[in-house]
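Q: For a teaching handout, I want to show students what a protein-ligand complex looks like in token form. Below are the inputs, and the small molecule is adenosine monophosphate. Please produce the holo structure.
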Amino acid sequence: MPVYKAVQGTRDILPESEMAWRLVESTVVGVADRYGYRRVETPIFEETGVFARGVGAGTDIVEKEMYTFKDRGETSLTLEPEGTAGVVRAYLEHGLFTQAQPVKLFYLRIPIFRYERPQKGRYREHHQFGFEALGEADPALDAEMIALLWEIYQDLGARDIVIQLNSIGDANCRPAYIERLVEYYTPLKDDLCDDCKVRLVKNPLRLLDCKEERDQPKIAAAPKSADFLCGPCAEHFGVVRTLLDAMALPYAINPLLVRGLDYYTRTVFELAPEREGRRQSALGGGGRYDGLAELLGGRPTPGIGFGAGMERAVELLKEQQLAVPPTPAPQVYIAVLGAGAHVEGTVLARDLRSAGWRAQIAFGARSLKAQMKAANNSGARWAAIIGDGELERGEILWRDLAAGADVPDDARQFSVPRAGVLEWLRERM
Ligand code: AMP
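A: Here is the structure, written as tokens, with adenosine monophosphate included.
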């Protein structure tokens, strides 16, 4: 038994899933390019205040889940528990508000840390990609953001997923809704889970986000934010829906959808598998956060974005058996017999790789048979064999590994002068 294991709730990402991760990454980058979003990378830790204020008091994240520590200079730092606050901090710090608005940014494979109860699909370190557009309040941007999230999963080939949509109003109309929510919940107080008792006092909107089974019927019957929208919020919501309809995006209004974070206003959305409850399996979620920049000390700046879990995207590829490109096999496997051949083979491997070929060479002093077996197992198209005879004649012996077993050696093996090897290979691959 090894002495150390990965910390509970964290996982190693091993090479066998590398191509799935790469596919998610390249799909995200492709969609980002098409929609005109540029990559931003912020540090994985920030001063605690960025998240404490940006995510908000009373949220599970801030109250219970942050990895917060003092560094050696006694500064309180927090490992990022979500991606948005850091991006908005960077937008303000670097004066990106002086550029043409909206500023459209995305992040990719950022580690996210939350001290949650580890379970399937829920880790203490996971990774997200996410998109943020700052400096524009137009509901068309909400629709673009949702379309973009949808398109990433379309490009991956995902089936049976649906966008859930809601509006939670703004500072103008939400207070009346919250008041009504508190009125509704107050008589039910004694029967609420402990967390919800606290939420009722500290952050009533989050009552709707409770994951406890026993509170679900109460949530289902709770007043709905969309019924309390003021004129401008209702209009905004209407335009978002009109645009989604026009693009024929399949979405469902979920009147109980709220986001776990404080800074959201108006549009909230989530992408989730159709059948399962969204709480365990959301692929991504986000919304409009017109209040966030101010919370972080900036001037009022509208914004909208989402974060999406990459482990869940990779898991979806597996569950739905979606096409993932295979790990690239070597194109050439170099087999060497004898010390002189090792030198020649090493140089050949370097020449091939420099010319752009994927080449592997056998290590150690193994028999030709063992080396040919390794060559076949590697999936290489060609074996390049170097023995004493080849060395003497200044040649490489090429063996076609794709030829069937019935093809005689003289039809699948070719002696090629060392100097002409690159050209010979180029003509055959
Ligand atoms: P959230 O900011 O909580 O909405 O998270 C955004 C997305 O990240 C979710 O929709 C999930 O896909 C993913 N996610 C959130 N928390 C976890 C976690 N603990 N483990 C794995 N994925 C997560």
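A: Two things your students might notice: The first strand starts at residue 38 and ends at 39. The radius of gyration is 28 Å.
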